[in-house]
């Protein structure tokens, strides 16, 4: 029996759970896509924007700033007219690539099962509400 079962106290907390802290960093739907766009090296803002379907300039800017603040992405400014700005993953950001690639592969291998489960669930529970 676990300590939490004996004391009836929660043993999982958003405040201290390392997993939840990581999810906080990458949970925005655009974050993973931005990291994937940058995973092969330095890339200019406009190229990131072209690579990610549906992302607005505002959302891309916000995502890049958040990742820069978290130490995942670094911005390089080359003085020129106009200034050339490139983004790349930091060493810390590069350590995220392996688990994120594994998640991406999990999605490729298993998302069809998630969709099938959803369809089965909806069929089962929507059928009951139609009676």
Automatic annotation (TrEMBL):
Record's keyword terms, sorted: DNA-binding, Transcription, Transcription regulation
Pfam families noted in UniProt: HxlR
Every HTH hxlR-type domain range: 17-115
Name the UniProt record assigns to this protein: Transcriptional regulator
Domain of life of the organism encoding this protein: Bacteria
Organism phylogeny: Bacteria, Bacillati, Bacillota, Bacilli, Bacillales
UniProt organism field: Paenibacillus radicis
InterPro entries: HTH_HxlR, WH-like_DNA-bd_sf, WH_DNA-bd_sf
Molecular function via GO: DNA binding
